[in-house]
Amino acid sequence: MAVPLNQVVNPTNEQRHEMIRNSLKTAGRPEDYEYIVNLLSPPSDITSYAAPGELKGVRIGVMGGGLAGLSAAFELRKLGADITILEANDNRIGGRVYTYYFDVEGKYYNEFGAHRIPVTHETTWHYMNLFGLNTLPLSVRQRNNFLYVHNTRLRTSDSIQQMLYPLYDLTPQERSTPWAELDDYAFLYLMMQLPPDIRSELIQILPEYSPEYLALTNYTVRQTLENLGLSQGAINLISGVSPGTGALLNISYDEITQEEYTLDYRNTYTIEGGIVNLPYAFLQSFLADNPPQYQDIPVSQLGTVTYRPGQTVTGIYQPLNSSQIILAHRNVRSLKRTADAFDYVVCTIPYSTLREVEIKPFFSNPKMQAILEFNYINSQKTLFMCNKRFWEQDTDYGRMVGGFSQTDLPIQAIFYPGDHILCPDASSCSPYEPGVLAASYNYHLNATRVGNMEESLRYELIKENVEEVHGVPRGFLDSIVEDHKTVVWDNQPYNRGAFAATLPGQKKLFAYEMLKPEFNQRIYFAGEHLSTKHGWMQGALYTGKEAANQLANSFHSQFS
């Protein structure tokens, strides 16, 4: 049997682009292909703005060692600069990339942070390919996961219309509308009314937007569904069947639509051995005397990158009549305070932590207001280390390998490890092997409420929810789950939020202003919050590369 294209290991760019074209053709909008690929492709190489070695002797400080900071430093090194990354976390690398290993050999792991890479996210693939990282598919041949809604257990192949519609107070027209059509009307209809060039504004940051597009940004998800004429019963149904959307009904409607536009949940991949291998690859290149990724640039022209963990930036200052920027920082262990002077700074830390940093003089008023009110979403994830993969055992519905189950219970979603997806048959990958289950992955209020329960009570609630979704007796998992760990992103001291998600009007009001440099073109900004791909590695990597380009262009224009 031929391997489906979306289950190819290490797909080439041509194979990825074929997947994108096929999906867009199926969706009835093949004309979006060029817009998506071009707008999500990495920015131009930095050497088109300044020559290798041109920034020799220039000191650049990078605030934050997540993917945005790492990509900015990687690019700026091409120009010969001396770069220092100040990263608060001294326990791990990667920012909101967080691979957790239950064993010292690294065989049993899962992700607390970023875990899926859509084939459309060109900048993420650019760096993965550059570092030669192996990728594995997360798409399954045929999903047969659970959907547990309104105390009703379904499989993804079951009829939602037949089994769930009677449980909700729907209008006669809604009851006669198949689920696929109802869901498309809710989240695709308005987008499809826009011409392709205006649709593309979903993934652009512009000084001005077309009035037709702005209509998608002015209302919450709930308000938009109401404006479309959907009943509260239909909104409740949508919230149950699509609990990730249901958890975010108060954010701007365009946040949901832009992910549909770029097919973010179709044809997804992960990095073999853990997503953390991407930030590790950056660090390894910084430590190498002759890194292969810079093959066209002589070693003598490369700069240096110093990675300093355990350093929390507490102040950003530009003295009067000085072009330099002073970064004050504190060691997270000793609490020793230090200050360093830089010629330029790239700030990549989230606004949730930038809010506490002293800034003198103030940035522009729009940027300071954005730091105050730009919206972030909480997320909670709990991993179960299981001594066997009970979900892969044969049932009346067949084995469940990979994919995810959804529920209106507090846990919201269960993600199954995808390492057995490529097994040719059951005998090759036994369900009696240990595996790491993402037993609960939820957003916003679900994450806050479950995440802040007392630890033992939270564990019991999640365990019972998983048992309920799978239809097994209470206590079934007691002998199976050998270890577990929870991360609540609001409670992570150096993040205080999982990802940005705009409220109505915030994209128009803040997005363009947030990207502007400050302190007379001496400080630049990057991070997923400054992108159109909030919550994705694409947003962090793209803005890090773009901020480096802005800095290089400014330097070259000023000193050439």
From TrEMBL:
PANTHER family: FLAVIN MONOAMINE OXIDASE (PTHR10742), LYSINE-SPECIFIC HISTONE DEMETHYLASE 2 (PTHR10742:SF410). This is FAD-dependent oxidoreductase. Residues 67-551 form the Amine oxidase domain. GO terms for molecular function: oxidoreductase activity. Gene3D superfamilies: 1.20.1440.240, 3.90.660.10, FAD/NAD(P)-binding domain.
